[in-house]
Design goal:
The protein is of the alpha+beta class and about 120 residues long. The chain has a single domain, classed as 3-Layer(aba) Sandwich (Glutaredoxin). It is about 45% helix and about 15% strand. The chain has a four-stranded mixed β-sheet with strand order 2-1-3-4. The protein is elongated and about 50 Å long.
Length: about 120
């Protein structure tokens, strides 16, 4: 089952869900704010993509962290802890298909190639 991870009021999440709906692709949505995220899931993603692709230092949430908190994020373990505490730091969307990280970020061209290869 394809799962889109994010927060519902995010424009990129809205675009992603609209794209999936327009292409009749069944998915489920995982709302970080309501459901949180496990360290295990974050580790799974980081094993498939570089940490800097999952951990979004460009997010407003990250930028607003106190300097001492930012300075304490020095490795994968501390980054995972930060992402679990402030899920808005996680890049959005993350599209996962049964544990396989498919796409990080809204990329319609990638979505088309991965999820609708016969439509090309």
């Amino acid at each position: 089952m394809i799962t889109i991870y994010g927060i519902p009021n995010c424009d990129m999440i809205k675009k992603t869900m609209d794209w999936f709906k327009a292409n009749n692709i069944v998915y489920q949505f995982h709302d970080y704010r309501k459901e949180g995220i496990s360290a295990e899931k974050l580790k799974e993603w980081i094993s498939q993509a570089p940490l800097d692709k999952v951990f979004n230092k460009n997010s407003t949430t990250y930028k607003e962290l106190p300097e001492e908190v930012k300075n304490a994020i020095v490795d994968e373990e501390s980054a995972i802890k930060a992402m679990m505490e402030s899920t808005s730091i996680i890049k959005r969307p993350i599209v996962d298909d049964n544990g396989k990280l498919m796409v990080v970020g809204f990329k319609a061209d990638q979505f088309k190639v991965i999820f609708t290869p016969d439509a090309q």
